[in-house]
């Protein structure tokens, strides 16, 4: 398969054309759940959710798929083929969607807006993580204790405190730690060291996390617009 180059403008036009095609026309209804579709081919794909049918099988492994496009994308993981090239830097990708996300790093476009503060992001996943800083939601729960976290990466790091052996001993007390970085922060409770200073006031802190939490009090709050 020859490498193809798709500009960001072309991809946007393609999505708009597809949206127009789906906006009108005859509706096809699923007899199982009542959901309707503008095209019969979409209904056929949807019905497989109920029947469990996965007619597209990978010739390289035992995986099966409900749609041919998903099989095509999967096959690239075996062949290493990357047919979608970035027109700005030449980097190649196996999926068109991944190319679209990459192009945003060149154009600087940030189409995802935070409804709480107006901050913009180039990826929806980054926006989702950011919104948690406003809502305080912590959807990632540790299965070993009652702690929860706003990001999966923080949970993964915390989980190590349960799984890794506690081989780092505090020379000032009997506590043990699974990570040296945690021991370093703990040791400051004994030494009184506070290496992280706020550049807005004279306060200092034992960890960078504590400093970041403190710095939020210096950020000006956006005025609340009154309803008329």
TrEMBL record:
GO MF terms held by the record: DNA-binding transcription factor activity, RNA polymerase II-specific; double-stranded DNA binding; zinc ion binding
SUPFAM superfamilies per UniProt: beta-beta-alpha zinc fingers
SMART domains recorded: ZnF_C2H2
Cellular compartment(s): Nucleus
Segments forming domain C2H2-type: 28-55, 56-83, 84-111, 112-139, 140-167, 168-195, 196-223
GO terms for cellular component: nucleus
A Pfam family that the UniProt record links to this protein: zf-C2H2
Keyword entries, A-Z: DNA-binding, Metal-binding, Nucleus, Repeat, Transcription, Transcription regulation, Zinc, Zinc-finger
Classification via InterPro entries: Znf_C2H2_sf, Znf_C2H2_type
Superkingdom: Eukaryota
Protein's job: May be involved in transcriptional regulation.
The family this protein is said to belong to: Belongs to the krueppel C2H2-type zinc-finger protein family.
Protein name per UniProt: C2H2-type domain-containing protein
């Amino acid at each position: 398969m020859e490498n193809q180059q798709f500009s960001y403008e072309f991809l946007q036009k393609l999505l708009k054309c597809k949206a127009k095609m789906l906006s009108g026309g005859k509706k096809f209804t699923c007899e199982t759940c009542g959901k309707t579709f503008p095209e019969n081919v979409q209904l056929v794909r949807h019905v497989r959710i109920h029947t469990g049918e996965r007619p597209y099988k990978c010739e390289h492994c035992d995986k099966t798929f409900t749609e041919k496009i998903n099989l095509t994308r999967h096959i690239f993981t075996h062949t290493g083929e990357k047919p979608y090239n970035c027109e700005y830097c030449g980097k190649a990708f196996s999926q068109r969607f991944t190319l679209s996300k990459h192009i945003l790093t060149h154009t600087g476009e940030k189409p995802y807006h935070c409804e709480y503060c107006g901050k913009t992001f180039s990826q929806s996943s980054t926006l989702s993580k950011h919104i948690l800083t406003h809502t305080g939601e912590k959807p990632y729960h540790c299965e070993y204790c009652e702690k929860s976290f706003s990001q999966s990466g923080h949970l993964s790091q915390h989980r190590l405190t349960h799984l890794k052996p506690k081989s780092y001993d505090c020379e000032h007390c009997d506590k043990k730690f699974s990570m040296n970085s945690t021991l370093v922060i703990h040791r400051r409770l004994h030494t009184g060291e506070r290496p992280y200073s706020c550049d807005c006031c004279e306060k200092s802190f034992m960890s960078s996390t504590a400093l970041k939490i403190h710095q939020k009090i210096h950020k000006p709050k956006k005025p609340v617009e009154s309803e008329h």
